[in-house]
Amino acid sequence: MKPPKAKFLGDLFAASGVDGRNAHVRVRLAMYGVLLLLVALGGMRAWLSQHWQDIRQLDIEILQSIGEQRVLTQRLGVLTSQLQQQPGTSRTMTDELATVLLRSRNEAARLDGLMQQQVEREPFVAPEVLAALQAWQGDRDGMWGSLEPLPQVGQVANGALSASRLQHAQDAIALAESSAHALVQESGADILKRSRRVLFTIWVVLGGILVLGGVLAFAVVEPTARAVRRQYETFARQADHLKRLALVAELSSNAIAITDGAHRVVWVNEAFSRLTSYTQAKAQGRRIGTLLKARSADPARFAEFYAALRQNQGIKREIRIATRTAELGWVLVDMQPISDEDGALNGWVLVATDMTEVRAQQQVLRLAVDGAGLGIWHWDMVADTIHCNDRLLATLGYMPGELDMAAASWFALIHPDDQAHWQESLRHHLRDPDTPHRLSVRARHRAGRWVWMLFTGNVADRDVQGRALRMAGVAMDVNAQKAMEQQLRVAARTDDLTQLPNRAVVLEKIRQAIDRHQAQPGYNFAVLFMDFDRFKQVNDTLGHTVGDGLLRLIARRLQDSLRPGDSLVHTSDFAQMAARIGGDEFVVLLDDIRGDLDAEIVAGRLLDVLAAPYQVEGHRISSTVSIGIVTSTHAEPDADSVLRDADIAMYEAKRSGRARYAMFDPAMRQRVNASVSLENDLRQALALGQMFVVYQPVVQLGSHALLGVEALVRWQHPQRGLVSPVDFIPLAEACGLIDAVGQFVLQRACSTFEQLQQQLGPQAPPSVAVNLSRAQLRQPRLVADILEAVRAHNMSPQQLVLEVTESLAAQDQAVQQTLREIRALGVGLSLDDFGTGYSSLSCLHELPVDTVKMDRSFVSQAGQSEYHRVLIDATLRMARALGLGTVAEGIETPEQAALMLAMGCERGQGYWFSRPMDAQALVAWVQAGGVPALAPT
Ligand code: C2E
Ligand code: CA
Ligand code: CA
User: Any alpha helices (H) in 656-798, and if so which ranges?
Assistant: First the structure.
């Protein structure tokens, strides 16, 4: 860094046009010069005055002297003329003449002297004066010459002077007098002229002084005044500026110290005192290095400082110092020399910035970056080099210093297939900063393998033209994520539970098969849609864990049996794939079969294989499957339709008795469409009054006494005739109509019951049982509806029995809670279809029921199957132990009735006693005596 020069003042002066340092010298010189000139002029004027005074004095004396000469000459003239008129000259007269003559001579000598002085003093005597002087001197000498002899003559001759002599003297006198007059004239004129000259000179000098004054005013005073004003303004500005600078320095949050050339502190600001606890008073005069070192937590670093200061070089370093709060802080110390105009060092400025917080933030950031395992990179686009942290290098397997940091070398590490992607992303970002540069690329690890890395970066700096100068960002190893993505991709195509391919894969494969079938005559395929016949029951009664286990076993069996070369499925010369597409639905795709027969063979074998009992968590489960088959013969051109048709065929298989397969034929589609229309019809059935309720008696097995009736719903369809609840109850459940149907049956059963009481009196059935569907049990209003029905028809709650299926009762807490609430009303609860739901007898006590209805299948098989007899026996014992009533359903023969009675069952219901009848028929039936009593044996 170039040391700053303290030439601020100089700059200001230069700006103002005044050489600050020499102005006063110039002003001073000019003033003294002018003063000197004035003194000289004054002196000269005084001297001139004196000089002229002297000359004037002489002039006066000369004029007096000349005047005297004239007077003496005139006197001589008078005396001479007297002498002429009085020839008898008296001695006195001649004496007087001699005296006057002497005086004239003396006076003339004095005048000569004066004239001599005058000429010396004033060399410029007019020539006329000199000529007049000479003329006068000549005439004077002539006069004296003519007068000289007169007194001697007079004395000698005793008074008789010759007239010629006198005349001669007279003439000489007249001549002298006139030349004296001329001299007076000339001298007067000359003096006058000289006076004028003096006056003129005085005026000239005065003018000179005035001119000089003007010159002084314009050349010196004015510029000086202007310079002074400018200087004043400059100083004022400068003072303002300095004040501001001082304020900045004073109030700066950076610690500032100024030292002299010997590093001794001259001034420190408040922040310096705050940072170091050295006040201005304490710091002043002390060496700055010593001050800092005393506070430093790392005195060793000061060697650098001293070295730099010794060499008069600026230095900028971060050092740790103990701050006033006695904490260790990081301070960035920037100490720079100050030089004057001539480059001589005359001080230092120290600016210390407290970096403690910044450092702490950096530390946090670094920890965060390290913790996040982030690589950091920085691309100097001017130098075209990359800087990065060790973490990023380590990700690529390098140690610091091992990798060439030129940008080109770095970019060369990117996988060739990702290069274009990288460049494009970069281009987009550089053009539009809002488009992030963020992409995953493979980078070459030092070991040669490829590492997936996610790079994100932003332009950090641009020049004035907007060109990017620097980019910075982070990079992270995303190998794990990439692997995960791969797994997810697989998972998206795999069924989690069974690890079989899922629906998406099946659809894709079907699509391919369709395409191939269309393109390649002779190529055939088949789709086998499988549904486990009793899976729902397993799930409902044994729980989902068992259900899941069962599904896994089914999947395993499917896969095993489809494996090429497997002994179970021998037609393995074509590709086969099993998939699970939801719930208990599996699909097998047979690829490249010879014809429909192949599909039927596989289906037949799968039926056998899958029907074998399963062992899941200690439960032995046996169930059949139903299979629907679509072959390329009837395949629609899209995969979804093919799958749907296979599903339809599967339902057909179920309808025709389960445990079988059905080949799809387009007529089946119509039947399904019919079921759709059945649903539409069902929606209107209640409103149109097509529903009604029939009642089947329940009797005491021993006495055949009527114990109650079970209400069973019927639907009289205008076209289809009587539709069984077995067909429409599940439909009503599926399309949300079950509540309405259930409510209808409940209301109708109760009102019929009330009516029967009125019609039959004591012969009337003592109770009525109404079936509750699973969906109804989830209905929040159920309990209230039941109570209302009972009250509305003047029934006691005990006269109403609600039948729920075994699987339903065991379901969840909410259902159990509803059941308990129903029990609490006093309404009876009967467990319907007991034995079909696989629930163990041991669960019976947990259910809030008071009657168990043994399923028809038990009753029908009890005659032949020992197994069923054992089960019935166990059930009856358990029910008795728990104080529950028992009903045997579906008694069709007197043997069955007898058997049930023999086994200890209390009540019975079935065609043997009575088929379900409408209310009217029931009344007739009761009135006719009901079931005839058993003939006593
Ligand atoms: P479920 O509750 O077991 O009703 C007894 C079924 O067995 C009735 O069939 C009845 O007609 C039939 N049945 C009675 N005695 C014999 C017999 O000796 N031999 C044979 N083979 N069958 C006999 P339905 O009326 O067709 O009812 C079938 C099922 O529909 C019922 O089985 C019940 O689960 C359900 N259901 C009937 N009505 C309603 C109802 O109103 N609401 C609800 N939610 N379900 C109902
Ligand atoms: Ca029932
Ligand atoms: Ca039943």
Answer: 667-685, 725-734, 738-760, 782-792
